[in-house]
Write a structure and sequence with these properties.
Blueprint: E1 3-8, H1 16-32, E2 34-39, H2 41-44, H3 51-67, E3 75-79, H4 85-95, H5 99-103, H6 106-112, H7 121-135, E4 141-142, H8 149-166, E5 174-175, H9 211-219, H10 237-250, H11 254-260, H12 266-291, H13 295-323
Parallel strand pairs: 1-2, 2-3, 4-5
Length: 328
């Protein structure tokens, strides 16, 4: 089977954008691919983290992965720091990277601009670690959005650079385009993507938000003065964003949604979307509550790290042997 790798930082709660845009598709991948899903906590420390929060967020993210329906008997779920080969290969790939290509990374430019005069070196060097995450598992496909395309291109460059210099070791990963994934925008500024790190709490619906909070956030969502439920991403960004959420939850076409809400006001439409979201999120909340403090979660993560390490260590050994880092 083809190999899929995906990693998410435990730096905040997952949003409905993460769920509708990516996680639901992971459920289809697990049936016909070999899937490695990683909580990339070593990427999170490129900016300061409170240790207690990092531990909690790592565990919470793992529980959410499972709560949305991932089956630990079908996928390998693990924490990055529990598989040392990630950091080891990350350093090796850093030595193959140039300062220039790392400084050109868009996310480095964006994040370093927020750091003032003291820029953590990890912000510059984390792309080789991300490449290591992917290449360790001989990954064929990485399900990411366009904002991560530059990282996959660098990963491919590093793999090609290594293979050319030391011999064929790494598979060449490709971006896996998701089918039916929704691009959910900010509820307050629909010109930008919904983000778990948005400072405006009303802009983002998190997967662990209570039903009351979900209803309030949908009611406060930006629309427009036209008062017509119509899909128009040029003139009606706010209502079009909400229609995208409705479409992702029900599968109804935009034309069908327009027909259903012809003559109805935004309040009615928002109320129905809130009900749909609460209905989709309730079973996730229930499973999450079962997992978050359970020995079951620890067992799954321990077994996942062991399985991941068994695969990753084979690749790392081949890399070290090719480079002369292992005694014969």
């Amino acid at each position: 089977m083809s190999v899929i790798f995906s990693g998410i930082q435990p730096s905040g709660e997952l949003t409905i954008g993460n769920y509708l845009g990516a996680l639901r598709n992971f459920l289809t991948f697990q049936d016909d691919h070999e899937c490695f899903y990683c909580i990339v906590n070593q990427h999170a420390i490129t900016v300061p983290q409170d240790p207690k929060d990092l531990i909690h967020n790592t565990r919470s993210l793992a529980a959410l992965y499972l709560a949305v329906g991932l089956d630990p008997n079908k996928v390998t779920l693990f924490v990055q720091s529990e598989v040392p080969a990630h950091a080891q290969l990350g350093w090796i790939l850093t030595t193959l990277s140039s300062i220039g290509e790392l400084e050109r990374m868009t996310q480095y430019k964006d994040k370093s601009a927020k750091q003032g005069e003291t820029i953590p070196a990890g912000l510059l060097t984390y792309p080789p670690l991300m490449a290591a995450d992917i290449l360790l598992y001989q990954t064929n496909y990485v399900p990411v959005g366009d904002d991560q395309r530059q990282h996959i291109e660098l990963t491919r460059d590093l793999a090609q650079r290594f293979n050319f210099k030391y011999g064929e070791v790494f598979a060449m990963p490709e971006i896996k385009t998701t089918v039916g994934g929704a691009r959910v925008m900010s509820l307050q500024d629909p010109t930008k993507k919904m983000s778990k790190s948005d400072d405006n709490n009303w802009a983002t619906i998190r997967l662990l938000d209570t039903p009351d909070v979900v209803v309030k956030k949908i009611k406060k969502a930006a629309t427009d003065s036209e008062g017509v439920v119509r899909y128009d991403k040029e003139k009606q960004l706010g209502i079009s964003n909400l229609m995208g959420i409705y479409n992702a939850l029900t599968g109804d076409s935009f034309e069908a949604i327009e027909s259903m809400y012809a003559g109805k006001n935004y309040g009615t439409f928002k109320g129905d979307i809130a009900d749909l979201l609460v209905g989709a999120m309730t079973p996730i909340h229930e499973r999450y509550a079962e997992l978050i403090d359970s020995p079951e979660l620890d067992t799954i993560l321990t077994q996942g790290a062991e399985k991941a390490a068994a695969v990753a260590n084979v690749t790392l050994a081949r890399v070290e042997e090719a480079m002369g880092l292992r005694r014969k």
